[in-house]
Amino acid sequence: MKPLKELLYKVRIEAISGRTDLAIAMVAFDSRSCSKGSLFVAIKGGIVDGHVHIASAIQNGAQAVVCQEMPKDRKDEITYIQVENAREALAIMAANWYDHPSRSMKVVGVTGTNGKTSVTTMLHETVTGLGFQAGLISTIKICFGETVVKATHTTPDPLSIQFHLAQMRDQGVAYCFMEVSSHGIDQERHLGIEFAGAVFTNLTHDHLDYHKTFASYRDVKKRLFDALAPQAFALANSDDKNAKYMVQNSKARPFSYGLKVFSDFKAQVLETQFAGMQLRIEDRELYAPFHGAFNASNLLAVYAVCALLDFETEEVLVALSQLKPVEGRFNLIKGKEGVHAIVDFAHTPDALSNVYQAIEQLRTRNERLITVVGCGGNRDQNKRPEMGKIAAQFSDTVVFTSDNPRDEDPMAIIDQMNAGVAVEHTQKVLIQPDRYQAIKMAMRMAQPNDIVLIAGKGHERYQEIKGERFEFDDVKTVKELINA
């Protein structure tokens, strides 16, 4: 139980109707979750307006309601708090409810189009390898100690975030590394977290179905850095043209990392093989089982964060050399006949280009490159022709297939991808909307030493079709078929 007044601390209130000397038993933003003594927060969503469910929340036991619009028919025994932004209020109240757990640890947020999962996961594994208690909130999972929870969103809702941070605090976690998505920032899910630092990886074409314009997408990302405290650090990838803009006017201490541009932290790829790559970070050399400049950049980001958190350099380098590729990110599977399959989450034009550039460094030109790729339904349609163009340009053969078509016709999505293919590459394209059959087709075509790239889904273990999720795992499928 917590006093309502305590929960409302720092919430921007416009009006109050009713008593504030109430003891609140729980905070909820789903009316179905409400029970006796709860506080219900009515969120105006893109599809559902929580204000419609205020009566249901009260019926289920809510005795206080936070809303952006006061209901016309108010009950005398219920307290109504009108706020300008209910999402913001929920995030602040969630932090108040759990007694601000982020103050008890160093939380580092990572944002960007690509690399968030890799950087946060590698940071978690590195710091854990150094002997410290660390937590992770990522697209794939939320974990700390022996606790592992499968993630449902890149950035969870505020109550879930604060709940997991409180669990981490209670178990003595000293560091937490968290993916912060543009959706999460725009919907205020990150508010109430006191970040020790934030990392910007890159910014490329994605999520324009939600943000509408690239400038809007960029500006939402920047809000994470604008809110940092003076004692925090703001680390940006100087190889991305948006790096300076991200940290501009931030109160935090600015730092940069990069492979190409002069930076506070710099690295160079010395050699690349199927087994991994040799790097020079600052003035020290490091071997790691990763591929591609994008992974070199991710490793450098991890090194830089560890340096800014004051970890010992030599110990960090040893820990980095012991890392393994993140699930679904350039996962290399070798078949008995010498076929190399690569499963990668690449689902944006830039991410797909990065994977091809990494593969180019491994090729001898005596082998073929076969790609299986699709684009998600109910998402940004503008990137589909570009994805098709890139896949056909770099591949010897490409199979266009399904990748979570959701409510759309898979063939309509494939047609949009096909529209981007240059005339000189059209003969390379095959179409198989069934993803399993598409992967099977690619594996059957592959000869010894050929490379098969399965792009788009990575760590995901489902196909989302017409509102249902069907079990499907690219890695499992490839392992089943590569030696068949």
Provide structural commentary.
This protein is α/β, with parallel strands linked by helices. The protein folds into three domains: 2-96, Udp-n-acetylmuramoylalanyl-d-glutamate--2,6- Diaminopimelate Ligase, Chain: A, domain 1 (3-Layer(aba) Sandwich), CATH 3.40.1390.10; 99-321, Mur-like, catalytic domain (UDP-N-acetylmuramoyl-L-alanine:D-glutamate ligase, 3-Layer(aba) Sandwich); 331-481, Mur ligase, C-terminal domain (Protein-Tyrosine Phosphatase, Chain A), CATH 3.90.190. 32% of the residues lie in helices and 25% in strands. The protein contains 16 helices and 26 strands. The protein has an eleven-stranded mixed β-sheet, sandwiched between helices. A six-stranded mixed β-sheet has the order 19-20-24-21-22-23, sandwiched between helices. α13 (383-394) crosses α14 (410-418) and α15 (435-445) runs parallel beside α16. The longest helix has 16 residues, at 293-308.
CATH class of the largest domain equals: Alpha Beta
| Spatial order of the strands forming the largest sheet | 11-10-9-12-8-13-14-15-16-17-18
CATH superfamily of the largest domain: Mur-like, catalytic domain
- Cα Rg: 24 Å
- Counted by DSSP, the helix tally is 16
What is the overall shape? globular
Q: Report the CATH topology name of the largest domain.
A: UDP-N-acetylmuramoyl-L-alanine:D-glutamate ligase
CATH architecture of the largest domain: 3-Layer(aba) Sandwich
Structural class, please? Answer: alpha/beta
Overall tally of domains? 3
Q: Segments where pLDDT lies below 50 for 5+ residues?
A: none
Oligomer: single chain
Question: What share of residues is helical?
Answer: 25-40%
